[in-house]
Structures are given as structure tokens and as C-alpha cells.
Write a structure and sequence with these properties.
The chain is mostly helical and 141 residues long. The chain has one domain: Four Helix Bundle (Hemerythrin (Met), subunit A) (Up-down Bundle). It is built from seven helices and two strands, in the order αααααβααβ. The N terminus is likely disordered.
Length: 141
Amino acid sequence: MTSPEIKKSVPTNHEIEYHELTTEYIIIIHDEAIESFGGEKGFLSISNVDHLIYLFNNRKYDVVKKAALALDLITAKHAFVDGNKRTGHLVASILLEKEGFYINADNEKMLNVLLKIAKYECTVEDIIGWLKKNVSPLHMS
């Protein structure tokens, strides 16, 4: 499972559970993260979130690519005024957990990749490669 430190970044007033991802649900995830950990609510480019939902609904992508797109379109493209790294991480984690996976990275490793993504130092393909190396099944049989 996700390390305890990363799990602390998950808003406490709802469990991570999969709902059909919509722009509205991603806004709720963002707003709960801001309420839990501080920052300013609001959008810089909500069209990035709308585009993400469009891609999810109209393309046949595997879960790793969907998680990578969420990290890119929310974190790097700064959909929100604040909390983009937290929100991108949460959305990617929800997508992966719904399919039985989690990001197997300690806080430092996760923060480093989020900072690289936020500073435009990674392409979507780079993020996919990183995720493939750092995603593990939730349950080992």
C-alpha cells in the first residue's frame, strides 16, 4: 500500500474510492486537499481537467497512461491556483488503486518526480516510464 506519509496527503473526509472521474469529482478531490493541508482554492485552467476527462472517456488508454496524463495535465499544466501536485498525485493514485495498483515510492521519491513534472522536466512518456518502474499490485497472491 501507499506509505503512511503519502497516505496522509489523502483528504480524511472521504476514503479513496473510485467514482466515475468527472471534472466535478476532481474539483472535490482538489478542494478537500486544500481544506486539509492549506492553500488557495480556484482554477487557473479548468479546461485541462475537462480535457483529461475527455481523454479518459474517448480513448482506450491503460491505467498507467491515464495516471500519467492526470499527473501531466493537473500537475504540470497547473489546472488549479494551488495544490496541483497534491491533486495530480491523488487522482493518479485513485486511478491506479481502482485497478488494483499503487505507486510504490517513498515520500522523497514521489516528491522528486512531482517537482520534475511541475517544472516541465518530464514528458508524458517519461512519466509513464517512471510509473511502470514504481507501480506495484495492491495484493500479492
